[in-house]
Design a protein that fits this description.
The structure holds 2 protein chains of 2 kinds. Chain A contains 15 helices and no strands. By secondary structure, chain A is mostly helical. Chain A has one domain (15-306): ABC transporter involved in vitamin B12 uptake, BtuC, CATH 1.10.3470. The longest helix of chain A has 28 residues, at 285-312. The radius of gyration of chain A is 20 Å and the shape is globular. Chain B is α/β, with parallel strands linked by helices. Chain B has 15 helices and 21 strands. Chain B has helices at residues 45-52, 76-81, 99-106, 115-130, 147-159, 180-195, 207-213, 236-243, 299-307, 326-330, 337-342, 357-371, 387-400, 417-432, 472-479, and strands at residues 7-16, 19-29, 34-39, 60-65, 68-69, 84-87, 168-172, 199-203, 216-221, 224-230, 266-270, 281-284, 288-293, 313-315, 319-322, 350-351, 354-355, 405-409, 436-440, 452-457, 460-466. In chain B, helix 4 packs across helix 5 (147-159), helix 12 (357-371) packs across helix 13 (387-400) and helix 13 (387-400) runs parallel beside helix 14 (417-432). The two termini of chain B are 25 Å apart. Residues 484-489 of chain B have low confidence and may be disordered. The chains are: A mainly alpha, B alpha/beta.
């Protein structure tokens, strides 16, 4: 029984939440004042848009592709939200819908022409960035009030970022991991040939996954503007690597359709917290990115060890 | 149930480039029968199954199911809709999903609230029925299961019925990855299924299995059905005879010389890595040694071990390899013909630490002429060549190296007859000059060119035939296990 509890499989599943817990406890220990409603709110605020972008990346990774444009995309959404959505809401929302459609189109292009998604999305990252500069040449704009008030909600007892993250993880988990339709979407990452043989359209699956990624990318940009109140074309460029790292930290893999929405959200929060943790350590900001990388390496090394233990059994 | 055949393929043809995989196959499947399908490598069994399951579109011929001609709109989807199921040799499960989720993939009718429970009941019930005591949980992730258990899941899924019936189930070597007990359970289930009015096609190289289970047996050779009769009309001997071409020896060009074994020194010995009993392979200087048997019985693995001078092999001298799967293992698709030829011998063209391109170029020119690669200019991209000429370039790469031993991994797949003859002559020629060849081939005819043949089965060498004793019948007999009676249905 105890053997079952501590089997490598269970350990592998527990690794992401345990990493997050270790990080949180260290932060509480370094700075006990963060252990409050207000402290947690501040600590986790910026984790929400990162978590949304990570979920977007997860949909792409699930079908064995990689999105190097999500950072530029989120920046563009942020710029559109802070300008068009604020000034002419209908036009702004239409533009965002068109962006989601463009993502679905990218999925179709990658599948039909058998292009490497890395190349296509790397190219698109410059397109998104260029569009963002066109929409908002200098930093500025203003968050629409309704987004601002949503992102600064103060629900009783539990801070908003925690509620939002839990809700996000659970909704995507049910839709992708538990529903019959989600099963087919994940199957396309595991064995596309078998899916095609069973009569499913891989093209439709890829388009669906890319559209979902676009949708969550849009949510991420809007949430980000709600927090920062204004936008700038470079606001979310680092999200590209953060989102990939978040999915992998959360137990996902680059190929094979093995992803976990709950893990992805936890991974995103871990990465967001890692920055605060290093600040509390009074680490020179120059070293912070390197230290963040070190945290990533440690967690992934642990995963490798667990997998080797699994193989030995 | 309608009278007449449930499935009829009529004059179906399929070509892959120069190779004619199916040449006008006509076959009918009746409700309530099990049809055994046997044949040697490349006889066309797998192609026929791919056509039946709608994955490959035939070049000519008709497919009639339940009396309706479906040739025009036949696809994987319509095959499913007609209740034609296929269990492929290479597994078609999603390793990242659970057993129950995989059942859902091929049964779209399972959806909505509670789908997971219904999927579990469907696949779990079928597993209990076919393989009682299987020890598989429907919540196990497929990637964590052993190959045998995955095969069980795949078979159970093919027999499972939702709104899609399972009228025809095609099993391609289903018992090859199952243990004896599970295989017996499966075969017993096949008999029950057939007795209840289902139709089953069983492809197997275990002839005892085929003879015991089938009602009728079809024998394929060279893309056609050469014998089709009630199973009672066959025995092991007559099946093997039907699979081979007209009884004749395999003595070919190699026969003229006296055996080289007598006086030439041995340059390599190797023993397959297997737990079962096996002979050892040895090759002497100047010999062409053939590795025969059904495909995938451990021949490639042995070649690779020789190539790497791995432990357990004794190899004297350098080894060059001619890859069989040109596209993945052989050519550099973005390079020119000249670069593709000279890559194997770059060390010869070193000028200090730099490469002398002039010499590499001249080398490639020389080999183009010697081997007869049909191109005006060796600086053309390699993909401008036909498949046969690409293969010649790979031969030039290996022969141009200084290696004394050349291992060839079924190099003539999909090559036209004319090119084959040229290459055979070249191999004999190089062997006369003292090079040693290890030649894995899936084509019986090519064994004629070998001085000595080893037959592989299930990872072991089971027969050792010098040229003088070689015959197609002997190779076939060794390739198919004498497995006796397994099931009393």
């Amino acid at each position: 029984m105890i053997g079952a509890i501590f089997s490598p499989r269970v350990l592998r599943g527990l690794l992401p939440p345990l990493s997050l817990a270790v990080l949180l406890i260290s932060i509480f220990w370094l700075q006990p004042r963060t252990m409050s409603y207000f402290g947690l709110n501040l600590l986790l605020n910026l984790a929400v848009p990162i978590a949304l972008a990570t979920i977007a990346q997860m949909f792409i990774l699930c079908v064995n592709e990689l999105d190097l444009s999500i950072g530029g995309f989120v920046s563009l959404v942020a710029c559109i939200t802070a300008t068009w959505v604020q000034e002419t809401p209908l036009f702004g929302l239409l533009a965002l819908a068109a962006l989601i459609a463009a993502y679905a189109g990218l999925g179709a292009l990658i599948h039909i022409r058998q292009l490497p998604s890395i190349v296509v999305t790397l190219g698109m990252s410059f397109v998104w960035l260029g569009l963002a500069v066109l929409v908002l040449p200098t930093p500025g704009g203003k968050a629409p009030d309704w987004i601002r008030s949503l992102m600064t909600l103060k629900p009783p007892m539990i801070p908003f970022p925690i509620i939002a993250s839990v809700a996000l993880a659970l909704i995507v988990h049910v839709a992708l991991m538990r529903s019959a339709g989600g099963t087919v979407l994940r199957g396309a990452g595991g064995n596309p040939a078998a899916l095609a043989r069973a009569g499913w359209s891989i093209l439709r699956i890829k388009m669906t996954m890319f559209a979902l990624a676009g949708f969550f990318g849009v949510l991420s940009g809007m949430a980000l503007v709600g927090l920062t109140t204004s936008a700038d074309a470079n606001i979310a460029l680092r999200y590209t690597l953060l989102s990939i790292a978040g999915v992998i930290l959360g137990g996902g893999e680059f190929v094979g359709g093995r992803v976990s929405p709950i893990g992805a959200v936890i991974g995103a929060m871990t990465l967001a917290l890692a920055g605060s943790f290093l600040s509390f350590l009074r680490l020179n900001p120059d070293w912070q990115i390197g230290a963040q990388g070190a945290i990533l390496i440690i967690v992934l090394a642990l995963r490798l060890l667990i997998r080797q233990a699994e193989k030995r059994r | 149930m309608t009278d007449g055949p449930i499935v009829l393929v009529d004059g179906v043809e399929k070509r892959f480039g120069a190779v004619r995989a199916l040449s006008g196959v006509t076959l009918d499947l009746q409700a309530g029968e099990c049809l055994g399908l046997v044949g040697h490598n490349g006889a066309g069994k797998s192609t026929l199954m791919n056509v039946l399951s709608g994955i490959m579109v035939p070049d000519a011929g008709r497919i009639v199911i339940g009396g309706a001609d479906l040739t025009e709109r036949y696809s994987a989807v319509s095959a499913m809709a007609q209740g034609v199921r296929c269990v492929f040799q290479e597994l078609s499960l999603c390793p990242n999903l659970t057993v129950a989720e995989n059942a859902r993939i091929s049964h779209p009718a399972i959806s909505g609230i509670g789908w997971r429970r219904r999927a579990r009941a469907l696949i779990g019930g079928m597993l209990d029925q076919v393989f009682p005591g299987h020890g598989i949980s429907t919540d196990d992730v497929v990637g964590d299961l052993s190959i045998a258990k995955r095969q069980m899941v795949e078979i159970a899924r093919a027999f499972a019925v939702t709104d899609r019936e399972a009228r025809v189930v095609i099993l391609d070597e289903p018992t090859s990855s199952l243990d004896g007990v599970s295989a017996e359970k499966l075969l017993a289930h096949v008999r029950r299924y057939v007795a209840a009015g289902g139709t089953c096609v069983l492809i197997s190289h275990l002839l005892g299995e085929i003879l015991n289970i089938s009602d009728r047996i079809a024998v394929m050779r060279d893309g056609g059905v050469v014998a089709l009769d009630s199973a009672r009309a066959f025995d092991r001997k007559s099946l093997v005879a039907a699979m081979g071409s007209v009884a004749e020896g395999l003595q070919g060009p190699a026969a003229k010389a006296t055996p080289k074994r007598a006086d030439a020194p041995a340059v390599l010995t190797a023993r397959p890595e297997t737990k079962s009993e096996t002979l050892a392979l040895s090759a002497h200087k100047g010999e062409v040694v053939g590795l025969a048997g059904l495909s995938g019985q451990g021949q490639t693995e042995l070649l690779v071990r020789v190539f790497r001078h791995a432990a357990g092999t004794e190899v004297r001298g350098d080894v060059a390899l001619v890859a069989g799967d040109r596209q993945t293992d052989g050519i550099f698709p973005l390079w020119s013909i000249a670069e593709n030829i000279s890559i194997g011998s770059l060390r010869q063209f070193l000028n200090g630490i730099l490469l002398d391109h002039g010499r590499a170029q001249a080398f490639a020119q020389d080999w183009r002429a010697r081997i007869g690669i049909r191109t005006p200019d060796v600086n053309q991209p390699i993909l401008s060549l036909s498949g046969g000429n690409q293969q010649k370039a790979l031969f030039a790469r290996a022969l141009g190296s200084t290696a004394g031993i050349i291992v060839m991994d079924d190099p003539m797949r999909g090559v036209d007859v004319g090119t084959k003859q040229e290459v055979y002559a070249m191999i004999r020629d190089e062997a006369e000059k003292g090079r040693t060849f290890l030649w894995y081939t899936t084509e019986m005819d090519e064994l004629r060119n070998c001085d000595h043949v080893y037959v592989f089965r299930e990872g072991a060498i089971v027969a050792d035939l010098p040229h003088a004793e070689m015959s197609e019948e002997k190779v076939l007999h060794a390739s198919f296990r004498d497995d006796g009676v397994r099931v009393s249905a």
